[in-house]
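Lab notebook: predicted structure, single chain.

Context: the supervisor wants predicted structures on file for every construct in the current expression panel, including those that have not yet been purified. This is the next one on the list. No modifications to the sequence; it matches the entry in the shared construct table.
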Amino acid sequence: MTLALTVLGCDGSYAGPGGACSGYLVESGATSVWLDAGPGTLANLQRHLDLDTLDAVVLTHAHPDHWVDVLPYHNVVRHLRPRTGVAVFSPPEVRRLAAEVNGRLEPAFDWTEVHAGATAQVGSLSLSFSRTDHPPETLAVRVQDATGAALGYSADTGPGWSLSELGPGLDLALCEASLAPDAERRVQHLTAAQAGTSARTAGAHHLVITHLQPGVDAVRSRADASEAYGLPVDVAAIDQRYEIRA
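Prediction complete. Output recorded below exactly as produced.
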């Protein structure tokens, strides 16, 4: 059994040409979780997974670049490939917005509202949530499999939160690095250097930066993150897969 992460989308705020916003497939054994569902990620998910086998969806916050593809996915499981009880976890505001658009979400979805400190179990995966430095209520996620391998996902955050809040032993940290260096602290997001510092402080074994806004220099971001982290860093790319071991 191997914990695996596949990038479905990694653009920040909006998708650049040919891109997609935040979304990731996390798998371990027979368990699969769609972690954030930004625009474009439902299409990309289908290259990697039969939709009938998806176990759960985790949505970190109510900004549309992180969740709106759950709306057409609801159409899939409600009308086109009917299922009931697909687990969804999110802060309350995401559920409220989804219900305003799509109406009744049950029985297709079994939606659980979560806050900081909450935990959940999806098949072989254990989830725990931490409130980040980002409005509206935004939850970073630690995903750990039965072998102890651990993924930490920052979701969106400013520098007032650290990956350390997800606990020790992060084998892979997936951290937002939205901003160009000259935009540091203008909004509640991170530069690549700040992402690198956060991962180094947390003792993460591997860092992948993500959520770069279109136009931000990925080469410069990789270099800045690597310098701050002290080790080589990856920049997330659609369809990239990482196998995560404790």
